[in-house]
Prior knowledge:
Blueprint: H1 15-24, E1 28-30, E2 42-44, H2 46-65, E3 70-72, E4 77-79, H3 80-86, H4 88-91, E5 93-98, E6 105-107, H5 108-126, H6 141-144, H7 156-168, H8 174-183, E7 199-202, E8 206-208, E9 216-219, H9 224-229, H10 231-237, E10 244-252, E11 269-278, E12 296-300, H11 302-306, E13 313-316, H12 317-322, H13 329-345, E14 352-356, E15 368-376, E16 379-390, H14 392-401, E17 407-424, H15 426-433, H16 437-446, H17 449-462, E18 464-468, E19 476-480, E20 484-498, E21 501-508, H18 509-520, E22 521-524, E23 527-533, E24 544-548, H19 556-568, E25 573-575, H20 582-590, E26 596-600, H21 602-605, E27 610-614, E28 620-623, H22 625-636, H23 642-648, E29 651-652
Parallel strand pairs: 3-10, 12-14, 24-25, 24-26
Antiparallel strand pairs: 1-2, 4-9, 5-6, 5-7, 8-9, 10-11, 11-21, 12-13, 14-15, 15-16, 16-21, 17-20, 18-19, 22-23, 26-27, 27-28, 28-29
Helix pairs in contact: 2-13, 5-7
Organism: Friedmanniomyces endolithicus
EC number: 6.1.1.14
Protein name: glycine--tRNA ligase
Amino acid sequence: MASEYKTRTGDDFDRDQFESLLRRKVFMWPSFEPYGATKGLFDYGPPLENLEAEVMNVWRDHFIRHERMMALKCSMLTPYRVLETSGHVAKFADYMCKDPLTGDILRADHLIKDVIESRLKSDREARGEKVSAVEEDPKLKKKKSKVTKTAVKLDDAVRKEYEHLLATLDDCTGDDMGALIKKHDIRSPISGNEVEPPVSVNLMFQTQIGATGKEPAFLRPETAQGQFLSFQKLLEYSDGQLPMASASIGYSFPNELSPRNGLLRVREFLMAEVEHFVDPESGKKHPKFASVRHVKLPLLDRKTQTEGGSTPTVTTIGEAVDSKLVDNETLGYFLVRIMTFMQRIGMDMNKLRFRQHMANEMAHYATDCWDCELLNSHGWIECVGCADRSAYDLMVHEKATGTFMKVREDLKEPYEVEEWQANLDKKKSGPKLRKDQSKVEAALNELSQEMKEKLSITMADKGKVELPVSEMEGGKVELDKDIVTFVKEKRKVTQREYTPNVIEPSFGVGRILYSLMEHVYWTRKGDEARSVMSFKPTVAPIKVLVVPLQKDTRFATLLSELEGRLDDAQLSFKVDQSGVSIGRRYARNDELGIPFGITVDYESLEGKGFTLRDRDSTKQVRASLDEILEAVEKMCKGKETWEGVSGRLPVFEGKVEEEGKEE
């Protein structure tokens, strides 16, 4: 299948062939397959599970170790009240449209995008332009045949309008999408039927804690809330010093309306999230920002998108922060760290960009957000979100629970202030307020100085006041002068109290893994049947292929010694002693992405060393076992390259690759 998306070697990317490799080599498959599989759920086989572990080891080193973060593991089950307070119950949602005749559920933005892209493709065909083939779900082919597919040429103005619509679709509200569906007569691509207006649907999996059903809960949609609710413990652990950061790796569960595209849109996925707490009065500066000011990033800003553009501008992060394109140094610093992480694990940097969120697209808690998007055969895919969450989460949880979630900082120069104080007599108020006493106390503490002064006048005049308390039945409570007093007092201020702001890089690990697999996939020139997965040695699922030249019992002692040495070096390996040619063995293990092959041959029996093969170039060197293992260890730690190794060890000219056709 031809495609505008290219492999790392510049050839057309064949997704059918790529996905065939993933199935044959047991990278992944739909969960519960014997029962017909379940949409949006996938199981990882040994290669992908090991790849994930290697990538996450790099992530831990790159962020947790290097940035001195505090690693956390928080509960996946989350009480209803927590997510109600955070805003997820009301706002963690997508818009869906229903086909009233078939009952099909379609995600509104996907529906609009698919139909408009189909019309633009049809227009290109009618104009005689080259159009790449588009993958079609075989389950829908019979249904889709009901929809006319004749090439139709669009007016130039309509074509331009459609292209602008796609560029700005992320900024649309539910009402906006409903208007677009009506204006452009967008119908179900499956049946051709009109669809109902978009409605908001919450995307969390609801459950209960305990057998009674009285404690509703959700499977968490993100790891962040557990980190926020651990704030005071983290602050204590870090000796009260800011900035500080926590990090959590764990599963989250979005109940996707229309899961599709393999690992790109699923109902269960691994997240890696950082919560970096910073003093807002510091200007959100970062102590290491000077070390990255010069780094250039491809930035697709909001203004360019609004104008219908999709080409990022390459600029240094220093210039972006100075111009306020990127809001602050901490946000900018993490954008650079995200990019360098992608480089470390082997992403194609020509297929990476940072896209700023449109105004209506931003999460309810964010003040600014940039997505690290990776290009794969499905288009530009958000893989990391880097958001400035301001102080939203800590403030709402403090208000809901009464738990102190601020930082206290000793002042160098204390000062005196005169303020109105609202003093609640807890002994007298207890019998009247009972369980609402803490709510009333919190409401009094939240009163402004102006409001306290007004209430003091009312209390002096009438002997009682009416206090708004939104959490109480009726939304207010009457308090008399025996229960609460308002007085103006002088006090010495020795500490500053403030709620930290949070910068949050949030990684969708499944999307990163899928994009990485596409980025490293290619086929050998002149033999498209020989696929290769060029994982960097640092993250390759298996580091070494051990291949005896032939099945010969004389190799047994050397093989046993080699396996022991590889174990001692903590290098993962696979032994292939099958009866096929050595070239075929190399070829089928290239599909697993094993970067190095050690061959045991008859010269090895004579004490003349072993050969070491490089997967990508197929070049080989010959040296002693000590030299070969030293080279492999260094390359797997990123301390040396194959070019360096082949420059210092004797080159071996073999002919085995001539037989390297896969079965």
